[in-house]
Predict the structure.
Amino acid sequence: MTVRLDGQLALVTGASRGVGKGVAIGLGEAGAEVWVTARTSLEETVREVQEAGGRGVAVACDLTDDAQIDRLFAQLRAESRLGVLVNSAWGGYENMVENGEFTWLKPFWEQPLWRWDAMIDAGVRAAFACSRLAAKRMVEQGGGLIVNISFWSAQKYIGNTLYGVAKCATDRLTADMGRDLQGTGVTVVSLYPGMVRTEKVLEAAAFLDLSNSESPQFIGRVVAHLAGDPAVARHNGSALVAAVLAREYGFTDIDGRSPTPLTLDTV
């Protein structure tokens, strides 16, 4: 890591595990003060952010509750400049096995309605709600970065229609927010991880090819470099691939490897 974010304040949603937790640690590695939020325990994330070199602050928040989001941003307003928002919170992965049956890959007419609600409410709507409040403050400040965690399913069917619709919505939200933010000094992007070694993925490691996988912290390093890039506005409104950015910025994963970027043909 060569980028430094000392003195910057970052907010990461969905930071109790997975990509969100890795993003928080990667920002901490760059020296940022990282506010982490989720509905579940955040003590481990805060500890690892601080071990990486940053300052971690835990704020429990249910992002499907507007009042709790309002309170979160009221707390943030009392702090220093908000430099980065990463919308990593997501729903719909819960209960992939229902009544002994794996339902994730079923056709849309056999998908449970709760999964749609979880992806849209805890994912897309939460990203909009947080971005709306963060952007207001960032525009007032004259700058900032918003990162929406997305995926290739926005562009290609990957086994679940609901997932594709939700990620398409995420990318469209990014593109249209980017139009609104032109000239404000605030940049918004969608970020595509590759195969990330999250807790859920590692549970199924025996059935997966992880030879070209990425650590969750690798995604955090990507976000840190975007936040530290004085020319990041060139990406405003765009969907970006994490592994491509790592090569452009010239850094590796925590194991020293350089993941090969996925494409529409290889995803």
About this structure: The mean pLDDT is 94. The radius of gyration is 17 Å. The longest strand covers residues 186-192. The beta strands are 9-13, 33-38, 55-60, 82-87, 97-98, 101-102, 144-149, 186-192, 239-241.
